[in-house]
Amino acid sequence: MAKIKVSYEFPMHCLSEILYEYMATAEGLAEWFADEVTEKGDDFYFRWGDGPQEKATLIRYKPESFVRFRWEEDEGTKNFFEMSIIIDEITEDLSLNITDFCDPGDEEENKLYWENLIENLRIKLGAA
């Protein structure tokens, strides 16, 4: 069954340079996204608790702007997850936009998952 694309926008109160470090480095991602993150080239290995290690490949990025990963299980598909920094041209407010793919019917669970992750990130950034 094909996954569906979902997008979320989270206002953030921090500098884009700092936020990007939390999105694009193993050290930053280990602070809020997973319990343990290691990086080997473009491959990132994530572990939650005592669970198995999961691999995602960094497939696109633009410094200070966005990162796009593809989970190993999604190779050969168009599925990915992306974190983008958006700065409003007028107000200069900063938002973190998330694009992800989930199974049909899991949209609400996926949204809650990301809301919890972003709350962890805000706490780490001191931007809660």
TrEMBL record:
Pfam families linked: START_2
Highest taxon of source: Bacteria
Limits of the START-like domain: 3-127
InterPro entries attached to this UniProt entry: START-like_dom_sf, START_2
Protein name: START-like domain-containing protein
Species of provenance: Riemerella columbipharyngis
Organismal lineage: Bacteria, Pseudomonadati, Bacteroidota, Flavobacteriia, Flavobacteriales
